[in-house]
Design goal:
Elements: H1 2-33, H2 52-55, E1 68-71, E2 76-78, E3 82-89, E4 96-104, E5 112-115, E6 120-122, E7 128-131, E8 135-136, E9 142-149, E10 156-167, E11 177-188, H3 190-197
Parallel strand pairs: 2-11
Antiparallel strand pairs: 1-3, 3-9, 4-7, 4-8, 4-10, 5-9, 6-7, 10-11
Length: about 200
């Protein structure tokens, strides 16, 4: 009787472990499918609670990633000027990817993004842009092109907070890795620049 009781306990324990594993798998699959249009706005900032790596958590996030670059990003921009950026992401291993960029500054005037492709979206105040579809790749490289218009107020610095995912495209958060990098640019007075150039 004692042996049978022990077997029953072990079976119950195994069933409980199986159920917990199944629930966890369903929850994580739900997380992976919860944002078909891209990560929640603000998730590119690793300092917030619901950041990209809080869902794609199995592999450690890469901070200050050298795999992220923005072509067209200058040290300074004139007020009100519109520029084209190309976000380039080149990790060593990747089957699919997505991104989010947030522009912030102390005055709350970070400029405005404009999506150039249907596979991107911007938030309501145009201070952030993200991929709206997964970009699949066989070369571990991804590129997204979009526009940004500088704010009309000079004498400030805008930070561009970038997050990009190096995913294995298995429709789950397992095995993915998030890369983060922050860039900054000063905003200078266009009128002052025009005056100096006309002298």
């Amino acid at each position: 009787m004692l042996t049978q009781t022990r077997l029953d306990v072990q079976l119950l324990s195994l069933r409980a472990s199986f159920l917990l594993s199944a629930v966890a798998a369903l929850v994580l699959a739900g997380v992976a499918a919860s944002y078909p249009e891209g990560a929640p706005w603000g998730a590119a900032d690793h300092r917030v609670d619901e950041h990209c790596a809080s869902c794609h958590w199995e592999r450690d996030a890469v901070m200050h990633s050298a795999s992220i670059a923005i072509d067209g990003l200058l040290p300074a921009f004139e007020t009100g000027a519109t520029h084209t950026f190309t976000l380039e992401f080149n990790p060593q291993v990747m089957a699919a990817s997505g991104f989010q960029v947030i522009a912030i500054n102390e005055l709350g005037l970070p400029g405005a993004f404009e999506a150039r492709e249907p596979a991107m979206s911007v938030n309501d105040d145009r201070s952030a842009i993200r991929s709206a579809e997964v970009q699949r790749t066989e070369t571990a490289q991804a590129r997204w092109t979009f526009r940004w218009t500088a704010p009309d107020v000079a004498g400030q610095t805008v930070q561009f907070i970038v997050a990009a995912s190096a995913a294995n495209d298995d429709q789950s958060p397992f095995g993915d890795q998030i890369h983060y990098r922050t860039f900054s640019a000063d905003i200078i007075d266009r009128q002052l620049t025009d005056d100096l150039s006309s002298r």
